[in-house]
Design goal:
single chain; 396 residues; alpha/beta; seven-stranded mixed β-sheet; six-stranded parallel β-sheet
Amino acid sequence: MAAREIVPGVRSVGVIDWDRRIFDELIPLPDGTSYNSYLIRGSEKTALIDTVDPVKTAELMANLDRAGAETIDYIIANHAEQDHSGSIPAMLARFPEAKVVTNQKCRDFLVDLLHIPVDRTIVVGDKETLPLGGKTLEFILAPWVHWPETMLTYLQEDRILFSCDFFGSHYATSSLYVPNEGVIYESAKRYYAEIMMPFRSSIKGHLAKLAARDIAVIAPSHGPIHKRPAFIMDAYRDWTDDAVKNMVVLPYVSMHGSTQAMVDHLVDALMQRGVPVQPFNLPKTDIGDLAEALVDAATVVIGAPTVIFGPHPQAVYAAYLANLLRPKTRYATVIGSYGWGGKTVDTVKNMLDRLKVELLEPVYIKGYPKEADFAALDRLADAIKKKHEEAGIIVS
């Protein structure tokens, strides 16, 4: 990634990772990602906001050379996770006069994770400022976005919010700024679903605090820069709002066709009743797509056949994921089949204990579905439609 000017005295010096396809050995990255780092030159001091993943340290160094960064006085660490902080040790070695500026909790994490010397750090508090000479950095503590030590940095004179993971997207592009809001909306929603959604309440509070600020540009740590902050901030308000949409998400797995037949019938029944549904065949599903679908859905139905005495491991994974991400879903249930016994329904229900949902009557059958079983699925579709009507998200 070339070193490019955002405004006079502020350059983007981060790198693009075109080929990365998984994050934290968990999150698929179909569009790659970027590790954004920003160089700010004042008349007296120079600061670098965040570094990059350690596999890209050499590229960051090359960009600093292109930007003519002969000295760096401050390295601002908004977040301790290694895709942001991993190049800090190399930066401290190259610039022996530099100090790492961060909050107390993040400083402690950096010491533990990267063995940063304490005497090379400066601890700042919420709303504390750091003058660079004609450019003033203000630090905004934003815990649980998405780690407990996250902070944001606001460049007062240029009204740029360096938002760390907040408002980001795993999207590799040669464009410095958002090239297509429709495309970035989907990427940012997926990003929110995968790492931000469990902290929805905290994020709502941080959005409210930022609403009073005059922000001209949002420069996140991943993905392109937002020149129209209202676009991404309004999207976050929608995603974090308590309102749900008339949508059923149906992650499932079928071993010998019984659960598949039930899923097919329920999908058709919901469609006939005006209830949109998104089925996800788990062995073939990108979990990022599933996570994104969970953001707005009113209802989750998990399709799980029994393996020996319990739910299929793929269904366990889906239930665990939903419970971990804590979407604003209001209703949930289980469908599937078994051969001779087991406790699949109870196991799956118990795995959703962190969700504030109303559990609807499951449809769990022995063997391949019969006429009475299909009728039970029709009644479940009726019940889902009624719940959506009562919630005011569907009009009969």
